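From the methods appendix. Each design record in this collection lists the tokenized structure first, followed by the designed amino acid sequence. Records were kept in a plain field format so they could be parsed without special tools. The example shown here is representative of the layout used throughout.

RECORD:
FOLD TOKENS (255 positions):
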């Protein structure tokens, strides 16, 4: 792999969309910056995907501003010219109605899904603008477009990601920096296990009798976007499994 190979930074690379994207881009000849909280998983990926010369890893909690700033400041010069930033780190917690949900879960989703995206973008964006090129790919969700019972703050955080993407496009017009929001639907990863706090029965029920998206489906989408011509910007992309669609508005008819 050449030292001139393009560089992609993937947050939340230890599982799901992030891990699948790391593996696909490594196979395609890219150099990688991988972030996550689980150091052992990052080290395993680094060893599998080319070693320290091709993969830089940094473990930190993206919900912490100080930790995020420190980690990005410590990216070595050989990896500093990031071509693509994939803001993938995020989570959903719980699916209870708003009036009984855990406020700590709400705050953690805001700190991760909103503030984490803001921080990584703001810290890497100036150098992209200075170079006149770069690509920010945000991982949103159909939940940011279509509400559902129990989606409350999770959906709101993904609505933020969508609007943030659109605002970035407006700000970055003429800079050469591109921005896309990918909005996946039902996808089978660790997502539901995290959401339901390792309750496998509840997690499995989300995918029962369906064929959901896979992490590799979204990784393929990210690679396709990264390889589009520089004059092409796909602003938003909603990706759902064939067995999923939006439905009619709910009507309460009383008891």
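DESIGN:
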């Amino acid at each position: 792999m050449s030292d001139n190979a393009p560089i992609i930074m993937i947050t939340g690379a230890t599982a799901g969309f992030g891990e699948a994207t790391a593996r696909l881009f490594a196979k395609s000849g890219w150099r990688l910056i991988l972030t996550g909280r689980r150091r052992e998983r990052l080290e395993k990926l680094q060893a599998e995907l080319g070693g320290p010369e091709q993969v830089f890893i940094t473990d930190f909690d993206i919900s912490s501003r100080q930790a995020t700033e420190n980690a990005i400041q410590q990216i070595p010069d050989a990896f500093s010219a990031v071509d693509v930033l994939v803001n993938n780190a995020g989570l959903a917690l719980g699916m209870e109605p708003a009036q009984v949900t855990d406020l700590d879960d709400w705050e953690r989703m805001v700190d991760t899904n909103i503030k984490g995206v803001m921080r990584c973008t703001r810290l890497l964006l100036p150098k992209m603008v200075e170079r006149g090129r770069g690509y920010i790919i945000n991982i949103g969700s159909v939940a940011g477009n279509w509400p559902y019972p129990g989606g409350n703050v999770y959906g709101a955080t993904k609505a933020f990601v969508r609007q943030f993407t659109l605002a970035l496009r407006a700000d970055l017009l003429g800079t050469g920096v591109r921005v896309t929001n990918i909005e996946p639907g039902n996808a089978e990863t660790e997502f539901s296990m995290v959401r339901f706090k390792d309750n496998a029965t509840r997690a499995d029920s989300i995918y029962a009798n369906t064929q959901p998206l896979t992490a590799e489906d979204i990784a393929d989408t990210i690679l396709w976007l990264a390889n589009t011509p520089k004059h092409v910007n796909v602003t938003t992309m909603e990706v759902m499994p064939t067995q999923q669609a939006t439905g009619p508005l709910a009507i309460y008819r009383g008891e």
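APPENDIX NOTE: The first strand starts at residue 7 and ends at 10.
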